[in-house]
Amino acid sequence: MEIVRSQRRSLASDDLVRTLPLYRSALQLEVRLEDFELFAIDRLRGVMCSQFGIVHTVLKGISDALSRGKKPDEMETLVRDLWKTIMSHPQASEVMNKDIISHFVLRLVYCRTEELRKWFLSMETTLFRYRFRLESPQVQRALMAEFDLPYKAVSNAEFELIRYSTRCPLKKFQN
């Protein structure tokens, strides 16, 4: 398999490796038929989840955890563990290719019906959200800058204050 574009991006004087693709368009890659099939299966393949003792897949595992009402920190751990276990590759440079190829293969598969398409988009959005949280602040800032998304960095104390103030009105309605 050969990658056509570089995976490295320069940010100021530092080089950082982008590990979170945005799937805007399929890359011009030469993919063996075996890899095409295996990468998609890996994204959906079952693995033993020691926490629950049942078989999970990346997208199905996310779906099940959301339906069980998992908390954000539990979801983050689940996504990180599932991703590491299932989407790993013997060659570190191929992990990105595997991610991109498997995404586009499943995108083709899940576009058959509106219901499948909605499920796939919902799970991929959730996967992106938690993978974004796992990235370093440098990578997060680079991604935000690439799309000219305005944001204001807040300290942990300010974040907790905002989080508390947004939860207080909800408690009034629950009583």
Structure commentary:
- The chain is mainly α and 175 residues long.
- The termini are far apart.
- It has helices spanning 33-44, 58-67, 72-86, 95-109, 114-134, 137-146, 156-174, and strands at residues 8-11, 14-17, 47-49, 54-56.
- It has 7 helices and 4 strands.
- The chain has a single domain, classed as Transcription Elongation Factor S-II, Chain A (Up-down Bundle).
- A hairpin with a 2-residue loop joins β1 and β2 (14-17).
- Mean pLDDT is 74; it is low at 1-17 and 46-56.
- The radius of gyration is 18 Å and the shape is globular.
- A two-stranded antiparallel ribbon has the order 1-2.
- Helices cover 58% and strands 8% of the residues.
Order of secondary-structure elements: EEHEEHHHHHH
Strand content bin: 5-15%
Low-confidence stretches: 1-17, 46-56
The CA-CA distance between the termini, in Å, is 59 Å
Helix content: 55-70%
Structural class assignment: mainly alpha
Widest beta sheet: strand line-up: 1-2
Number of helical elements: 7
Q: Architecture in CATH?
A: Up-down Bundle
Shape: globular
* Biggest sheet overview: 2 strands, antiparallel
Question: What is the CATH class name?
Answer: Mainly Alpha
Which whole number gives the mean pLDDT? 74
Number of domains: 1
Q: Do you know the CATH topology?
A: Transcription Elongation Factor S-II, Chain A
Query: What's the total number of strands?
Result: 4
**CA-based gyration radius:** 18 Å
GO cellular component, one term: alpha DNA polymerase:primase complex
Protein name: DNA primase large subunit
Organism: Camellia sinensis
InterPro entries: DNA_primase_lsu_euk/arc
